[in-house]
Design a protein that fits this description.
- This protein has 471 residues and is mainly alpha-helical.
- It is 54% helix and 4% strand.
- A five-stranded mixed beta sheet has the order 2-1-3-5-4, with helices on one face.
- The longest helix has 24 residues.
- It is globular.
- The termini are far apart.
- The relative contact order is 0.12.
């Protein structure tokens, strides 16, 4: 039931145009299997999730809805999984509260419809949070291999929970041992698996994360923390952390015999340290990874906190508490009405590359300069000549599902003379360029700028022979 409800609120928004990051994902799997690894790497991604997507594309198709289905299925499965596992120990109301958080929280919905690895990471993080110690380490290693920034949340979680198990925080005879994954009183840390997982994680981090940290200035435009308000706006803290923490810390022990306080404190500490630590490092200009997508693995932890808070209430009021909690969460995020009337509004991205490229393709304008706004574009364009792969990457929005003839498209920053270009961009258009353009067409945040000579329609048999971008 929870899985179906989660899928129902995600599916309506899946036919929207892909946005920039999703178009990189689509381009990565648009060619042969042998091209996937290098195309993923140039976009600062590991290849494992994209290999999976390449195979999934052959089953689900290459439409927006077909490709996004992989994220819908993984996050919806996570909702059902956390409900099923917690229902073995808690009341059904408490278990459904956890599933409801993953199903209806707006960030879970947004990333659950995005053609990026985050939906799969949510599923793996759920396994790490509510699975056994062995499953925890394996799921964490796989999650980091698909999205290395998952290490920010999941590695500290694994270390902390392993320490609790080793120190017998989950005591024999205490039924709370099943809370958040410890599946029996004699649970042991699988040290061989843990050591192998840590080594694999370190290799992945050094291979993929460390080079990004060295080139961290590229991420400064969108992943830099601001003041304290940037923390306040990151998550709906009242409903996911503050209220659950107050309820659980001050709840009478007899009212919640199934709740293990050590697990509660570990969850709260993990949330505070991962968010606070990342904010501090970003403010110190040491790393630029301040974005909720890099903390998406916290969602199952939030869900478990809410579930334990509901469980700590007296049995007669658990169902009303669970319902009111989900209503409060969705209302605080302004999504209560949208969930009922227009779920697609929650996932709207506003980059209509599909219509922009269709417009240019239909009108057959020549030539076409592309400035998609990729964070690597300045570094690549500044160094001189582009390799074939770099050129393809910088124009990937027109090389996948929304295709333009390769010979007509060039990676180019803002042109000096719009008479010689059609310019497609999602960046801000300067006032000087606005005054010299004959037409500017807007497709959400994507703009098509036309110069005087660009507005002339060419006949089908006309040929434009250009071997390099015009000056």
């Amino acid at each position: 039931m929870v899985t179906c409800a989660a899928a129902a609120v995600r599916w309506p928004g899946c036919d929207e145009s892909f946005w920039l990051d999703e178009l990189h994902s689509a381009w990565t799997v648009w060619g042969s299997f042998g091209n996937v690894s290098q195309r993923a790497a140039i976009g600062n991604q590991t290849p494992i999730w994209f290999w999976t997507l390449w195979g999934f594309k052959g089953i689900a198709g290459d439409s927006e809805s077909g490709l996004r289905l992989i994220s819908v299925l993984t996050t919806s499965t996570a909702c059902g999984l956390i409900t099923l596992l917690l229902a073995r120990k808690y009341s059904l109301a408490a278990a459904l509260a956890a599933g409801g958080v993953l199903a209806f929280e707006s960030n879970a919905i947004f990333f659950g419809t995005e053609l990026r690895p985050y939906g799969t990471v949510v599923l793996l993080a759920t396994l790490a949070v509510v699975g056994s110690a062995r499953v925890m380490w394996i799921a964490t290693a796989v999650a980091v291999s698909m999205q290395p920034t998952a290490v920010i949340v999941l590695l500290p979680w694994c270390i902390g929970r392993s320490w609790l198990i080793r120190n017998q925080s989950f005591r024999p005879g205490n039924q709370a041992q099943q809370v958040q994954g410890v599946d029996n009183p004699s649970a042991k840390v699988p040290w061989v698996i843990a050591i192998v997982a840590v080594l694999a994680i370190l290799i992945i981090v050094m291979t993929y994360v460390w080079p990004s940290l060295i080139a961290r200035d590229r991420w400064a435009s969108f992943a830099t923390a601001g003041g304290w308000n940037s923390i306040a706006s990151l998550w709906p803290w009242t409903w996911l952390l503050i209220l659950p923490s107050c309820v659980l810390i001050f709840a009478h022990k007899d009212s919640s015999p199934n709740i293990n306080k050590a697990s509660v404190y570990l969850s709260i500490l993990l949330i505070i340290l991962s968010v606070g630590g990342l904010w501090f490092l970003s403010n110190m200009d040491w790393i630029h990874l301040w974005h909720r997508r890099y903390l998406i693995s916290l969602l199952p932890v939030f869900a478990c906190l809410v579930s334990m808070a509901v469980e700590s209430s007296s049995p007669p009021v658990r169902w009303p508490v669970a319902v009111l909690w989900l209503l409060g969460l969705t209302s605080a995020q302004g999504n209560l009405e949208s969930l009922v009337t227009a779920p697609s509004a929650i996932t709207r991205r506003g980059e209509d590359w599909r219509s922009a490229i269709e417009f240019v393709s239909t009108e057959t304008y020549y030539p076409i300069a592309m400035e998609a706004g990729l964070i690597e574009s300045d570094a690549m364009m500044s160094k001189g000549g582009l390799t074939e792969l770099e050129s393809a990457y910088l124009t990937c929005v027109a090389r996948g599902p929304y295709e333009l003839p390769v010979e007509r498209v060039y990676p180019h920053r803002q042109p000096g003379d719009t008479r010689k270009f059609v310019w497609i961009t999602r960046n801000r258009i300067g006032e000087q360029l606005k005054s010299r353009a004959s037409q500017i067409h807007q497709f959400g945040s994507v703009k098509v700028v036309l110069g005087e000579r660009s507005t002339v329609r060419l006949k089908n048999d006309d040929k434009l022979k250009v071997s390099h971008p015009p000056d």
